[in-house]
Amino acid sequence: MSSWILTLVIFAPLAGVGALAMVRGDNKRAIERVALGASLAALVLAVGAALLFFRDAPQSGFGLKATYAWLEGGASEDALSGGRGSIGGVDVAYRVGVDGISIWLLLLTAFLTPLAIASSFSAIQERVREYYILMLLLETAMLGVFCALDLLLFYIFFEFTLVPLFFLIGIWGGSERRRASVKFFLYTLAGSMITFAGVLYTAYYAYRSGAGAFTLNLEELMRLSRAGAFPVGVQGWIFLSFAAGFAIKVPLFPLHTWLPLAHTEAPTAGSVILAGVLLKLGTYGFCRLSLPLLPEASRAFAPALAVLAIIGIVYTALAAWVQTDVKKLVAYSSVSHLGFCMLGLFSMKLAGMNGAVMYMINHGLSTGALFLVIGCLYERYHTREFAKLGGLARRMPVMAFFLIVFTLSSIGLPGLNGFIGEFLVLLGTATSGSTMDGLAPGPLGFSYAAVAATGIILGAVYMLYMCGRVLFGPLVEPVQAGGVGHGERDEHGGSSGHGEPHDDGHGGGDLTRREVAILAPIAAICLLLGVYPKPMLTSIQAAAEANIFSVDDRRQAEVEAAPGGGRAAQGNAEFGMPNAELTCRRVEDSREAVVFLTPHFARLLSSSDGGGDLRVGRTARVASTGGDP
Amino acid sequence: MDLGLLKILGIVILLAPLGAAGVCGALGPRRLRDRTHWVSILGVGSAAVAALVLLTHVASRGSGEVSTHEGAHAAVGATIPIYDWIPTGVVGRDASGGGITDEQVGTFPHRWFRVEFLVDPLTAIMLATVTCIALLIVVYSRDYMRHHGHAERGYERFFAYLALFVFSMCALVLGGNFLLLYLGWEAVGLCSYLLIGFYYGKPSAAAAAKKAFLVNRVGDFGFGLGILLIYLTFGTLSYPDVFDMLARNVDAAGTALETSKLTTIALLLFCGAAGKSAQIPLYVWLPDAMEGPSPVSALIHAATMVTAGVYMIARCGAIFVHSETAMLVVAAAGACTALFAATIALVQTDMKRILAYSTISQLGYMFLALGVYAADSAVFHLFTHAFFKALLFLGAGSVMHAMGGVIDVRQFSGLRRVLPKTCALVVIGSLALGGFPMLSGFFSKDEILHHALHVHPVLGMMGLATAVLTAFYTFRMVFLAFSGPQRVPEGVHPHESGGWMIAPMSVLAVGAVVVGYLGVGFTGKPFHTFLEPVIAHTFLAAGPNAAGAHGAAGEVVGHAASGGFLAEYGLMILSGGLSVLAILAAYVVYARAPWMAATARATFPRAHDVLWNKYRVDEAYDRVIVQPLRALGRVCFYLDEYLVDGIIWVISFVPQALGYGARGVQRGALQGYGLAMGVGLAIVVTVVLTW
Predict the structure, then answer these.
(1) What confidence tens digit (pLDDT) does each residue in A109-168 have?
(2) What ipTM, to 2 d.p.?
(3) Helix crossing, A417-430 with B178-196: angle to 10°?
(4) Are residues B376 and B256 in the same domain?
(5) From the list B84, B99, B205, which residue is nearest A623 (CB)?
(6) Do B640 and A257 make contact, defined as CB atoms within 8 angstroms?
(7) Minimal Cα–Cα distance from A475 to chain B, Å?
(8) Which residue, A284, A274, A275, A221, is CA-closest to A247?
(9) Residue B98 lies in a domain
């Protein structure tokens, strides 16, 4: 069962697509039900998968794995089963599996999609069938990314998310939807093309280093990387090519300009999915591919990425503050928040990693929910301008409640989920230089955390500014919408009833049951994760330790074990290669690296015998792992 | 101590108000409506009972061990773990020693930031004060909010927030590590935000709420960084561990602590305290917070929440006393704030704002006390202040209630006849605040002045001056409101408040009179004795009264030490006398000869103007900080729209340009293709041959 459950999860929405195609006529309700049903089925299956995963509780590596041969003429049986020795061929297969990190992102996706679909029932009135087909296709792609254990599969799913969203924005978007969708598509496509080049180069280099095949098997690559198959110079190039795609997706300053536009123009559900899941593909890519496969390059580039992340945090926070459109404000806030994510990832600490992954989940929940609330507003008033909205707490107390809860989650109020991610990210960043968690000292430090923390103040500034404008003060509503809707209890409050109830039956009434049913689960999860995050954080941490940093850790261990000689002295036995040959190639490569890379890199290369005192904490661990191959 | 019992009590103290808040919020609007207050009273009441039980439990056990100064933290406080909250990422390896192997990765227990309680005398006192005063105020609100509630759904909301606040404050006090302190810290900030903005339809209220939250966030920024630095230095955030390491003067790596680092930590923590407790330079939010309903002002912005900073510094004394700089900063900020706020209060006319400035001023006293190593005096003043300041705010609320929402003392006078009970109660509170001899405020303030004059005479003198001003402006307010010809705003039919409001005020008035005797010499200072174990190793050991620190200090009057009659009572007589004189002066100026005030104002229009406009600090902040930042935001946005996007656009133009260029090649003319082929071939051949 555990071998095919992930496949079921991934393709359940696709089955829904088939079912949608079979719904006869323009029966809107039937279409909606089928779409919701399919996404709920995926959710149930994903929860089942999570239960199975945690029952087996693999301490390291991936769980629920499945492998099916896919491309003909590819790998031999040997290579498929993870063995080495087959010469030539291409080791590409459909490989899926999850670990303690991806399982949560899988759940997030499966959780948010039904809500996004349910939120579209009233907003989408045209081309209903196509809309839901695209939503479900998108879901399959997103679920696939988080399960893929093969670089080609990863890339296919990663790329395939673009297409449905392109149409979702371009067809059902706002007034500037064309421009937004094209910009979004070209931006991300350009980046991911470079990423693809990196993927191919990785496979090629793995082959060159003796993998025996042109392998795209993630686990195999991790093993190779751990054994030192990727010299620093090569790592640098691959890292940059990966980063091109992922940084645009995150989006990292200064590559973020597609995001505010795409968010503002996308339909509500599109924004929810975009903010909730799609942006995480970037950070997930960094943490699934860049960090484990390219530890040294990650380390070397970390300060640069962190600086960009911090600039992004502060800069977009300030930009968010002056927005006049509620949705655009939240869109800018996304960029700011994802900067924290990047900071956590590249702190190279367990706490930071843990925080970054949790931050991905938190951001998906709270920002996704904020977009849902804004969507509710927009459906009622057909505007998102601050100038035209005000004092709505009086008109829509339930909406106000949810808006405030998600705002608080977003600005990191302790007791809600946002705080924990934020705290861990800052903790990881601040303690990056230390060895408290048994990992090598990371490249960041307290000063990074101090500057980034100003983003927290600014976060509170613009979010509360938004809440204050929309919810508090004298009641302001656009004239034509206004109306009393179905809010009898609100009527005695004062200036009700200028204008007619709007013809879609919503008017200015408070949230409907459906809307509350969409928002309440998110709020409950925000609270739960804030109060008792233990299960989530434990599994994330175990996965981070096993699948992300152990590689790095061991490499670092070798550097220490053999000062001067450095990284060359390992891995050979594993490959059965003559020692000298390997060493030669390594030396060449490191020369390449020096030419190629930044001063950080030069420092890294020369630091194999330096920086002694900081590493004290690590040596203990090295001693018992027995640094010898 | 009986840990099981303490754990249960702690959980009750937290969950009873939290549950009440949930019930009020969920059922209030539909089901409970006018009966919502009962839920709140029940929840806060249970917490108050539990807090009192906890207090007696701690007290009954504590008295025997006070004198044993050895292992203070182990003996005095009890840490009660509840559950694991956030993993630190650090594997708890020290137990097993040595490294771990690959197979063991993930199998070791990780260290956690736990949800844990710390129960010691300081916690017990704070909990009892907070919950009991909160209970009185919830009772008071039952009537008050009937009339001052919001047009829609205000009543239930109010009680939900109030209960939520009690939960937050108790979490702040009860938390056993810095992270929970931060949790409570932010949560009370949130409640304050919600309650200040309670009348959210009023733009001024919404603005005040936002201002309070943001100013506090600025402080919390420093506070949060301080906590990160603590973790970085000590590798833990748990109070006992941190304090233990401080006592042993080692950090996580086992090396000696650097004073500069501790100074940084202390100053960062002080940022947070300055924000929450409204000290210079972050005091600006508190006067505006008076936009909230009066019971809220009484509870949150006078008696409890704003004292969080004092609590925090008292709790972290171990850190602060390591740094003389930090202590001096605390003392100086306290003294300056005290004097500064008192001068503003001299000319304000809004009764609640006068009280707000006096709160800032009194909090300044507490910081002054902390800065001169008299943490017990600070907590004692916090304790007495809670009673009389809550009483005064409730009195102001009662006046407001009677005046139909008007609280400007220029609008009414002579209320002593129509509001006799309120008048009497407010006078009692004012006497306590003004330092009238033998009332609670007199004792606690005198003690602070005593220590301050001894350690920093200049700051002490500022404190003394503040005491005079305090008595004067307090009675200015009293005489303006209650004496003179009876005059009320138009259309108002003044009426005395009912029992639900008067009864809690009476209890507070009794407190304002008697609680001071818990800290005076002839009753044996039970308050200080009770508190002593908490601070014995920090403030007392480092302070000027410590054994061995005498010498130059000479004939210091220590906590229990006694000097001559003058040394012991001279200051008391002086400050008491000054207070009485100031009250008399206020009587003369505002009740007997109002022309004097008018003349004074006419003679010094500038001075009056500056004070009336609160030294224009708000405007300065707006101009120096807010507006530039917003302008920067606009710049960022335009940069984003035009420059950053523009650069990307230019880059994206490159492939397009290449495309244009390449278009020429693909014209379909055979000659062109042939030429290209030839050139290409030539290049390839050349390259291959010369390689």
Answers:
(1) 999 999 999 998 888 888 888 899 999 999 999 999 999 988 889 999 998 998 899 899
(2) 0.85
(3) 130
(4) yes
(5) B99
(6) yes
(7) 7
(8) A284
(9) no
